[in-house]
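Input/output pair, single chain:
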Amino acid sequence: MKATLIALILCALAGNTVAQTPAPTCKAQATDKKLSGAALTSFMKKCETDAGAACDSAATEKKLAGAAKASFAKKCVTDAVGN
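Output:
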């Protein structure tokens, strides 16, 4: 029983350490699409808005609140946008 419990814990920990390929940043996507001018501005604004929503959801999933949530969301959006 003890060995089974240890095996389950190790499997759970191993599942959380798998490296995930990060999504391309908004800047990288805009470069790939060769956007400029108004199209670039519009794309970046929408991408940043979408990133903000996704980051807020991630912060909620992590049960963050207050300054921790704000800090997490700010860094998450900055990383997603590619500044």
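The helical segments are 2-16, 26-32, 37-61, 66-81. Residues 37-61 form the longest helix (25 residues).
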